[in-house]
Prior knowledge:
Layout: H1 28-32, H2 42-45, H3 58-61, H4 65-81
Amino acid sequence: MIGKPKAKSFGGGRPGGLFKRIRRKKCRLCMDGQETVDYKDVEFLKNYVTERSKIIPRRVTGACAKHQRVISRSLKKSREAGLLAYISE
């Protein structure tokens, strides 16, 4: 038939078939068995903040949803206490 569309390949031209699976990051807090995050532990919290003082999302950090909420809460508490900056200068 004329004008019949070709089937699209999901491999993206890669030999070997479909896309390559990327391994998911593991939650560091789950692996350590840690339930809470201390808002006074500034060195730990700096790992979850960009250089512009924005909270890094969980798809980047690999934290589970439960621990990402705990981290966000302690970051905000630390900012309120004056231990972390709201914005970088």
